[in-house]
Design a protein that fits this description.
Blueprint: E1 3-7, H1 15-26, E2 32-36, H2 42-54, H3 58-78, H4 85-103, H5 110-135, E3 141-143, H6 162-172, E4 179-182, E5 185-187, E6 193-195, H7 201-211, E7 216-221, E8 242-244, H8 245-254, H9 264-269, E9 273-278, E10 287-290, E11 301-315, H10 323-336, E12 339-345, E13 349-355, H11 358-369, E14 372-386, E15 401-407, E16 411-417
Parallel strand pairs: 1-2, 1-7, 2-4, 3-4, 7-9, 8-10
Antiparallel strand pairs: 5-6, 9-10, 11-13, 11-14, 12-13, 14-16, 15-16
This protein binds aspartic acid and magnesium ion.
Amino acid sequence: MSKVFKFGGASIKNPKAIYNLKEIVSSYKENIVIIVSAIDKTTNKLEHVWEVYVENKIDKAHEIAKEIIKFHESVVVDLKLNNNPKFLNLFNALSLELVEYIGSKTKQENNLSYSKIVSFGELWSTAIISYYLNQQGLENQWIDAREVVKTSNKHIDSKINWEETQRKINVDLRKDKTYVTQGFIGSNLDGETTTLGREGSDFSAAIFGWCMDAEEVVIWKDVDGLLNADPKRFNNTEILKNISFKEAIELSYLGASVIHPNTIKPLENKNISLSIRSFIQLDNPGSLINKVGRNDKDMPSLIYKPNQILLTISTKDYSFIFEEHMSKLFSIFFKMGLKVHLMQNSALSCSVCGIILPSNLDLLISDLQKKYIVKYNTKVNLLTIRHFKTLDIPELFKSQEVLIQQRSRSTLRYVLKKK
Ligand code: ASP
Ligand code: MG
């Protein structure tokens, strides 16, 4: 049986961190499928390249791309990979491919070019890590995830074609070998690059785990485990030592940022346990997500999602917002890539709070305005308290205006706006 490990951007952010990854992997005797995301904030930087590219500022796009390449080259030198010809072949071919893609006369459709451009972050990082591990005596094979992770045609937030992915993985990967491959990326049946949504590498780990019937999946993070709140925002956070798959799905759906929301389902379906462990404090057991979930209701979890948009949509003729409108609205949301995190209806209006790519916001509004009256706020904040113990809004948020409040038996939610 194999294990799947996922290392995120922070865990490989510099040569020292990559050395630490090697130490972790070599402390296990099992064969491991190592899923890696892009180094540090590379995906954000590549998104910037893409934004500039879409605006047709090709020189600027080249300039930023070359800075990113330069940064990766410095990592290559630090890890002494710069005299490995096989590695350089792969690495330089990737860099050249990006530069040529940006400069190409024939431009591809925006979602396609998005996935193509951002995929280089993972392709570089995995090439570096795979060859570095081999150089350090940790034998492994680099896999281009696009060869095996097969998805729908939608290029961003693609859906997995489970059957085809499982078939490919079982043909290409053996259980008695160690592999290094990319999180986040895949390809459609035409071979075009697709992506699984930001932070999608966790999901990639679950995909490989599911397809290979792995014994366990471990996500290595810069936090001690799954916390009941984001430590960058809240004091006195605590570790959720053991929660159930169900609770983890609820928490990640609500926006707990530690794991990608799609990660749990495949693992639950095959009862593959998921650990979230610190790559810094290796003695810490971290959090275990499995069937049992001993600590599900022990303490309140706070989830704060800033920078959402709040849309309020009403009919132009004062008619009710009923099911038919709702289904139309949601098909527009789906088409424009609006992710809805909370909704609330009244007789005449429907409000939704969620996120959308900034470049799609104007399109969404103008599409909705053809049939509806639309009001919207940007920069609203969504606060969720799961397993709340009191009905009071936490001190930290008292200064914000409450635009919406919702409560169920287990969960309290607020849409807030800074005054
Ligand atoms: N590199 C991608 C991102 O930053 C995927 C991931 O990190 O999981 O969103
Ligand atoms: Mg990342």
